[in-house]
Amino acid sequence: MTAQSDGDTLARDIWTISRLNREVRAVLEGSFPLLWIRGELSNLSQPASGHLYFTLKDEAAQVRCVMFRPRQRLLAARPANGQQVLVRARVSLYDARGDFQLIVEHLEPAGEGLWRLELERLKQRLATEGLFDEAAKRPLPTFPRQVGLITSPSGAAVRDLLTVLARRWRALPVVIYPVAVQGEAAAGEIAAALTLAGRRGDCDVLILARGGGAYEDLMAFNDERVVRAIRAVPLPVVTGIGHEVDITLADLAADRRAPTPSAAAELVSPSAEHLAQRLRALGNRLRTAVHRPLAGARQRLAATTRHLGLLHPAARLRQQAQTLDERERRVALAMRARLDRHARDLRAATERLAARSPAPRLAPLGERTRWLGQRLTRALAQGLAARRNRLAELAHGLDTLSPLGTLNRGYALLTRLPDGALVRRASDAPPGTRIAARLAEGQLTCRVETGADDELGAATLPN
Known about the structure:
With 463 residues, the protein is an alpha/beta fold.
């Protein structure tokens, strides 16, 4: 009987309380989105940790709540017991006690909260109808022929718009549709101006704008009529409403939202900056289209990650860390062994290269080459000196035998004209012959008057 009971116990999947609470918390946190909840504050306390603990109740039920300290920096004022509030919270479970609780992300007074809740409901209803769908939004014209401004004619926004448009493209025509931008009649005037601009069709793009102000002053731009008029007009609409942090339903419905009126003017006016912004917008749309199929997978991955975080697989991580260390050590040893082997091979190759180096043989050959060069230089110098001396001797002998030396002593060298034959005897030049007499300096042309038999020969210069 005991053995059978032990076997049944081993076959069962028996949970601990800790495991049960962790699994229940995982189911709760993964099954509910962030919720808006209204109720009355009670049992408010704040220990040394700085976290807020309180109970939220209505006429029939209550629930424990906790608001962690980092979230409290968004509170406008410290809450008090008995106060009606609106909270944004997620469902959870406190493991240690198994208490069902809400983790509060945002808390505000119920009066303002009801107004924001109503606005949130309107936003959700209009979003369900597709009025905020990105796919339905129209592209802005690259070079608009005319721009329509729907704004107050006396506000600062219209001056900013006109200044920016004139600076970016002075030739761009502008049509102003004057409307009130706050007050009870503002929403109707804005919707009517949008309808009129769409019916006239004289503009390529519309700018709906107003300057900054309190969020209550922007309520006309949260009106359902304005949202529907934006989507009904057949022209692309750009909004520049309030400050950069102010986002209205008109901004969500518009084809493009600018943080300020001046930025809206920059969006619609053609310029290099506008083209770059359009390219960035197209890139964002492309990334959205690519990432949309992955959204569900990311959510499932996040839920799985939270679930695995509750299981704490520390033992497996330690084993894997030990295995990683061992493999790292083995890799380091293998790398060290390979480096040592390569170092040995390198030293051996260096020694073989040094043994076969021609440097020892080149040194004697270089010395012998220098010695032979010196001998050759001396031999050439001696040979040239001997030849210069010989040349001087021959030049002296030639100068001695040269007839030019005889001419210097007063003699002349005679040649017959015109054949240039040398005259050696008187018979070589009979009377009347023209002869050339070459002297030591210069030359004479003569005519023979008498022959060698004359007692006195004479030569005359030609006439």
